[in-house]
Fold this protein.
Amino acid sequence: NAGVMQNPRHLVRRRGQEARLRCSPMKGHSHVYWYRQLPEEGLKFMVYLQKENIIDESGMPKERFSAEFPKEGPSILRIQQVVRGDSAAYFCASSPPSLLRERTQYFGPGTRLLVL
Amino acid sequence: AQKVTQAQTEISVVEKEDVTLDCVYETRDTTYYLFWYKQPPSGELVFLIRRNSFDEQNEISGRYSWNFQKSTSSFNFTITASQVVDSAVYFCALSASANQAGTALIFGKGTTLSVSS
């Protein structure tokens, strides 16, 4: 039973480029969350999505960041015009459908983004 | 406001010692969930345990045990007879807002545990 998959594991971008981070949830999971881990700051929530819907984006920076979870395919976290301050580990997590009232989020291995 | 505090930034122990990682949380919700995650040096986040606010039973899983006390808003984690492989950053997290199907996890800043041989 495959866990949460994230790719790439490591991504290097130059300032001004775009970064696309992908996340495939665990089988049977329909909820996807993105978190960012900045050095010295711990893990911070960014956005919560279900298929084709953004449910909570209260943690997303207002500019340059966007997320989607299409009907088919992985969830994508997109960062446009990256800056050095975007260098961080980005984690995706997934959880089962809400009827089960199962709130455990299972995390992927993360994508380490380095902006030069 | 909801908050998780892990006051211990770093702990160093020698193998076979017992160690307790503290977690204190704040929430006004009556229904909430508490979690512990482990982040080993390889970087992934590993789920360890979930506890809901209605279940104050302590839990033991092998060398790991958890002590949930609503009266002090604490959810502490003890590792008995620590091993070098226990070296990692441990995060405590809170999920509240009972009416929502899925909510953000609020993480503490983590405790770095170093176990030496």
About this structure: Chain B has a mean pLDDT of 92. The two ends of chain B are 41 Å apart (CA to CA). Chain B is about 0% helix and 50% strand. The first strand of chain B starts at residue 3 and ends at 5.
